[in-house]
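Database export, one record per block. Field names are fixed; values are copied verbatim from the stored entry.
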Amino acid sequence: MSWNLHGAIAQAGDLAGLVGLNHKHFIIKLVPGAEFQTHRGVIKHDQIIGLPWGSKILSHNNSPFIVLQPSLADVIRQIKRNTQILYPKDIGYILLRLGIGPGMRVLEAGTGSGALTTALAFAVGNEGRVFTYEAREEMSSLARKNLERLGLQDRVEFNLRDIKEGFNETGVDAAFLDVQNPYDYMPQIRAALKPGGFFGTLVPTANQVVRLLEALRLQQFAFVDICELIMRFYKADADHFRPTDRMVAHTGYLIFARPVNISTGTGEDAQLLEALEGDE
């Protein structure tokens, strides 16, 4: 299967997004001869294969659908999950802050259902590598299936173990922790990151942030930034333009930092490390 984001025509093996009335979304893999059943009728895959993206099709009972290439955000929202996943609003910022791009080696702990894993694998390209760790076998298995569905599994190494034992990798470009107690694993992260690499994590409560700040100081992480992202959508109606009734507000505190090498044997160096910890 290919996640073909460059072609203009839907082809067998592609992922296709179907958008029906009331913006109901479905994502399917196009297989010749197959059918997709919805509450608005049956759609034959052969109706879609060979069409330009953006075309309209009708189900067997004449319900209309638009055929689109699914975006990364669409795919993440559709991921099969057993636990809460990171929101696209957070994932996009995480990719930017960690500088994720083609060819990078990225470490992730707390695979979960594989939402962030999917975004990381998409961003590092065929030459990059994502090393993901999960302690729960059922979650690691689910994430693997989600990545296989997208054809991204070859970019990911799945590890089933507790990260208190440390990581197999060293010198990785970036690392992200999506675990309950990231402050307990900062020595392991420090050992895995390359000098000056990128670190990020997300925690839901303020007291966790405070504990993490203490752990970051002990492991000589500097340039610490803490933020939360709040997103509000608006009704796309020229006659009644206003905010939608619901919004995605607080999902967690995002913390980013960089490891540095500063001797704390002198008061001057200690002051420098403290000054580099974050903006005043």
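Remark 1: Residues 137-150 form the longest helix (14 residues).
Remark 2: The chain has a mean pLDDT of 90.
End of record.
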